[in-house]
Amino acid sequence: MGSQVQSECEPAKRSPLLNVIAEVLCMVFDLVKVLSISIPLLILSVVKILVPSKLKNVRGQTVLITGAGNGLGKAMALEFANRGSNVVIVDVDLEAAERTCAELRRERSVAAYAFRVDVSSYEQVEALVDNVYKNVGPVDVLINNAGVVGFNFLQDADEANINRMIDVNVKSVIWMTKHFLKRMIERKRGHIVSISSLAGIHPLPWATVYSTSKHAVNGFMGALTEQLRLQGHAGEIRTSCVNPYYISTRKDITDFLKKPRFGILTTEYTAKCIVEGVLRNEATITVPRFFGLGVKFMQLFPTRVQQVIRDYILREYELNSA
Predict the structure, then answer these.
(1) Other CB atoms within 10 Å distance of the CB of residue 17
(2) Spatial separation of the C-alpha atoms in residues 186 and 257, rounded to whole Å
(3) Confidence of residue 11 (pLDDT cuts 50, 70, 90)
(4) Cα angle at 231 between 227 and 232, to 5 degrees?
(5) What is the SS3 assignment for 278?
(6) Can you give the residue ranges of the Ketoreductase domain (predicted)?
(7) Which one of 43, 63, 119, 315 has the largest count of C-beta atoms within 10 Å of its C-beta?
């Protein structure tokens, strides 16, 4: 009797054909729903490209930049100082960091603080956070800029350089973000920026490990963005991942790039584009702006077609040719 009642309560089984039809109808319904939501968002994105939104005000806010004693980091510090931000410079080269701070105080009349930290060290980053919040105050914008560049084929890269590149380019981004994110969540306010590279979305054969490290940065920032959205913090804490083209930050870079397909960017131009993108709360910032669209368009094609584009348009084979 019990088995009879149980069988009567079970739902009627559908045929395999009906199951397929039901699944297809559900997928069609979901697709229509996605399109109805996405099309207005796509239109809004295009409008924002053509008519950029207003820059947010960061006057009086504190911006912390790693690796900002020289190069791109210093140029970004100057850009934020021009907008009235107070700046915290974190660098392994304390003298360079202090020189940058002295310049900011003298020429921009903002508060500037220098800290010597190896950002690839978990313990040093943990101590930095306590030190900054105790002696400076809350950080409004964190910029993970410190990085190591290396142009090598994989077989030419030695173990020490590979470890250092992964430690600085990847682990430092994770350690800095992990520790500062906790404070930003408590405060319900903040903006986390990581400087990646076009090599982080377009694999660069001349720099296998470097390109790997920058792909990791893009993956990390993408996952972090979705984590914050899932946790309900997306409206409070913004994220930006920056992918610039080659920048003339150091002589060894410009010496290696003998025949780049496009002109090398200056640090001043790149810093200006990055800061403006951050102040527009752009999740992905590509410098120049339309290079990112070019990479996405290229990736629509099969690998063999992408290789033809590399050979005949990008001409990557002659990048280091005399």
Answers:
(1) 8
(2) 45
(3) low
(4) 120
(5) helix
(6) 61-246
(7) 63
What pLDDT score does 10 carry?
54
In whole angstroms, how far apart are CA 116 and each of 45, 170, 235, 290, 304?
40, 19, 32, 36, 47
Q: What is the pLDDT of residue 36?
A: 83
Distance CA 53, CA 194 (A): 21
Q: Which residues pair with 115 in a beta bridge?
A: 90
* pLDDT computed for residue 7 by the predictor: 47
Q: Is the alpha carbon torsion for 310, 311, 314, 320 positive or negative?
A: positive
More confident residue, 12 or 308: 308
CB atoms within 10 A of CB 61: 19
- For 69-88, letters b (16+ CB in 10 Å) and e give bbbbbbbbbbbbbebebbbb
Beta-carbon count within 10 A of 195 CB? 29
pLDDT in tens, 81-120: 999 999 999 999 999 999 999 999 999 999 999 999 999 9
- pLDDT tens digit sequence for 44-77: 767 776 677 789 999 999 999 999 999 999 999 9
| Catalytic residue flag (residue 210) | yes
C-alpha torsion sign, points 61, 66, 68, 72: negative
- Other C-beta atoms closer than 10 Å to the C-beta of 244 total 24
Q: Which helix (H) or strand (E) holds 90?
A: strand 86-91
Torsion 221-280-203-157 (CA) sign: negative
